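Our consortium's second objective concerns turning raw sequence data into structural hypotheses that experimental partners can test. To show how far this objective has progressed, the report includes one record in full. It was chosen at random from the queue rather than selected for favorable results. The single chain below, 322 residues long, was entered without modification.
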Amino acid sequence: MNPKFILFLAIVVGIMGLYFVFYDLYLRRLDRIRERIKEETDSEPEDEKPQGSPLFKDQRAFLTKIAEQDDLEIPRRPLRQVAEEFVMQSGLKMTLPDLIKQSLLFAGIALVVVLLFFPNPWMILLCATIGAGLPWLRVKRAKAARQEAILKQLPDAFDLIARVLRSGMSIGMAVKAVAEEFEDPLGTEIAYCYEQQNLGMSPETAFRNLANRTGILEIRLFVTALSVQQKTGGNLAELIDKLSQLIRDRFRLRGQIETLTAEGRFQAILLFSLPFLLFLILTLMNPQYELQLLEHPNLIFGTIGMMLVGGFWIKKIVTFDG
């Protein structure tokens, strides 16, 4: 084997090893904090599930039990449950079986196209995998866009809740005011939560379902604050005001970081798209010369693998997650 290739592989493995060491020393603690917040909002209260109403469908599927003590292992959720929650949080009018059907359809289309033009086993596998992943990528982008839209509405919604609470009204009236004043997606989710309470579900359960449907950390913090305030008391309006200011500060910091990392993100897009553009241009100019590359699938897979590693690395550098 080529010594230069071995050296390159050793450097890549070494960099990945350093990353995992850094993750174990620092990032794991942050993940543990997020997990503890999620545990609080996902824990299951008393069993109350009125039958016959679509507002209560699949409630059990999104409520998980947590460990009673800190040193006990937290049970993992089934993969199907995680996938269903992933589809639900995107806000698209589809279910997990619909998404799986779309993946199979796109994989079949890619398979037929490759069989007609490039009947190579490795190319068939690669294109079928890409085709199957496109619907999941669409759902992921829809989920991210929906969560971003909800986050932009949250500060004003929390301000409204705080004003209603200061006027002496209950949290139920504050939720109703948000449902009436705000548009989709936040207004729709809050209205759904309010209707669940009207149909007999306890506020604690309804708010936990809201946190699960959105999958947003700030809403989980809001639900945790409500739960703590009901048990211990305190000034809930002031706490919600601080949470609203925290979200605004996070948006401001995110904007600054996006400005500082704009060059890095542009370089990532350019470096990732340039090989494909050059391959297309050279294929149009001299097909016989460029199509010889397809006779060496190992080079293609190796190139794409290294590109994915580099793209993932750049994304971790320029992505804000605070």
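The partners drew two points from this record. The domain at 150-251 is CATH 1.20.81.30 (Receptor-associated Protein). The chain is about 75% helix and 0% strand. Both points have been shared with the crystallography group to help prioritize constructs.
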